[in-house]
From TrEMBL:
Name of this protein: Isopentenyl-diphosphate delta-isomerase, FMN-dependent
Superkingdom, taxonomy of origin: Bacteria
One GO biological process term: isoprenoid biosynthetic process
Enzyme class: isomerase
EC number: 5.3.3.2
Known cofactor(s): FMN
FMN-dependent dehydrogenase domain sequence ranges: 78-236
Short name of any one Pfam family annotated for the protein: FMN_dh
Assembly and interaction partners: Homooctamer. Dimer of tetramers.
Alphabetized GO MF terms: FMN binding; isopentenyl-diphosphate delta-isomerase activity; metal ion binding; oxidoreductase activity
Keywords: Cytoplasm, Flavoprotein, FMN, Isomerase, Isoprene biosynthesis, Magnesium, Metal-binding, NADP
Amino acid sequence: MAVGSQTIGIDDHNVRDSFTVVREKNPDGIVLANVSAGVNPDIALEAIEMIGADGLQLHFNVPQELAMPEGDRNFKGTLKNIETIVSKSNVPIIAKEVGFGFSANSVNKLYNSGINIFDIGGKGGTNFINIEDQRKGMFMGELDDWGIPTACSLAEIVDLNYPIQIIASGGIRTAYDAAKALAIGADLVGIASPFLKILLQQGVDELSSFVDSNIYKLKAVTLMTGAKNIKEIKTKPVIITKDTAEWLSLRGVDPYQWSKK
């Protein structure tokens, strides 16, 4: 599980328990800390220590910041800052988009700065520009469609063929969505909204049943493709059509490569 931005917990110790509870309730699980990619490296290390994190997400949310009346406007030096955080951290660093997707160009720059794990956070899930619109943000509804769709971002990054790990997130809602992302080349998938809605609206027992059901369906899809496991599903062909295929073609990525596996 990844927590949200810990900046508030660093600035206000009275709310730290809303982060530390994750490790308290899940002492043996994988827990990821989260701060802005532009944060002071010492604060990044403090975020890791706060929850005994196994990894650190550095989030990239430039569109959201620009939509916020009180948001950041200066992003100079971010890549250099990332290099410093990577050099000081004793846990893996993950570049995390928050709903607008990474392009291949961005991943190339981040990879050269020392990042080799990417959570693509593509368009299709939570829309932080829209959220800021509800707070009377700077964009006033004009840029709600901004971003790279998750499938396009994933395929662009896979096509780089870098020695990296890719987490597909952003609109992943079903086991079938997860299976397709894994087949395209993701190593992991991230899901939040469906779990949270069921937890809040129907309770813990229904959430547990939903998780079990999705694990079963993911196993079923894997079996139906003739794959023995998640690793092997990556070897199965995927047919990419319509808008996604057009996007990739215009970006110089051959969508047919997935159908020829």
